[in-house]
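Check these lines:
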Amino acid sequence: MSIGESMQQQAEEFRTRYHAVRDQIGRVIVGHDEIVHGVLTCLFVGGHCLLEGVPGLGKTLLVRTLAQALDLDFSRIQFTPDLMPADILGTNMVMETPDGKRIFEFQRGPIFTQICLADEINRATPKTQSAMLETMQEGTITVAGTRYELKKPFFVMATQNPIEQEGTYPLPEAQLDRFFFKLVVGYSGRDELATIIDRTTRGVHIEPEKVMDGSEIVRWQRLIREVILAQHVQDYVVRLTLATHPEGPLALPVTNQYLRWGSSPRGAQTLALASKVRALLEGRYNVSFEDVRRVYLPAMRHRVILNFEAQAEGIDTDHVLLEILEKLPERSDDRPVAAAVVASAGRE
């Protein structure tokens, strides 16, 4: 069997297993197909996900259902203003031994899991939010000089409410950048709402079956990184990232007019990895321009910062990013600039 045939076979197997998980989630969650796909994309590339939406749209239920469909440890942390870092990470407790001696023993916090639901993460203070930074970036926890390794795969899914701002602390840009995707959960449609009522008001309780474990998820994470990203598509990824930098060499007029800061190299890395998942799900093991375009909004909307003019005119980040997608050509001969940024992203 050739390498191409082997990759094609693995791509088909990934599609089958992906849809097995998707189908189990669909037994409980009605609609929100793009949101579910975004969450699964984050899981299969080893990234973290931020869900934004008003209360009651099923954000928490989605995470719980995902944990039930996967044979992984699950914990939920309800973020509140009085939550402390030790409540998340754990702390050293004084314990008494059988012979009467007292020793310090580390009691692990709820972050020692594989799927962690950080519910209403913007309700905690910046000090507590910062406790998540090391875990999300390194997959480790350091307490009192001791470093603990988290079991793989490790996946944080955080939720936040965009309309209730009193008593909340907006996530700092450094932490937002550590989320692979930011997904905006919208309202359900007419048919979807009818189905939700049917499922939830008739005393029927549906439990998803476990269809995948951690070792299989890690195997798919390795496969995704083997998907081919051709040089001309990679250049498109780089230029889409550079196009968000105000006054940069590839900045568009809309960028200079409405953005204060652009995406970090993590944005380019996210576009590349998420596009590879899209390619596999289409039965291909090479990324297309369309794959990149379809993941641009969730990959970038939390990595650019609007300026005062945009805020005054009621312009949101999606508006700016969609115009960049529309105006930026897929191909360009300006390769030296792109190559320099790729090298920079590789060192990140």
Q: What stands out?
A: The CA atoms of residues 25 and 65 lie 6 Å apart.
